[in-house]
Amino acid sequence: MGMDIFLCAKPKGFSSFSKIQDVRNKVEKGKELKLADTMLYNAIMEYNGAGLLDKSESIRLQWLKDALEANRKELYSVRSKIQRAKFAVILGKAWFDEFSSRDNCLLTYNGIEFDFVLGEKEEKL
Q: Is the pTM value of this prediction over 0.70?
């Protein structure tokens, strides 16, 4: 058995996502959107605003593939930065200046609350 140290960031309000049609229904009825719903709604509006609704299926599919690839590249970049920060925190036994202690690890960014958790778990070798 070995001990693995982990650091994770848990964004509040993104544990589950609604169906696209449910988000559309909420908007039509003027209901308040949760953070995850707002993210889906923004994606729907981006797609609708791209002028693709009257285009062929192959053109719409290519637009989605291109958008997905652009988002993947951004995701890889963000994950790489997070991994470097996690490595530095774990290896250096340091912590972030934004937090007063390792027990108080809530940070709000762009209206989204993140809980940072550092811990250890046993792993079978």
A: no
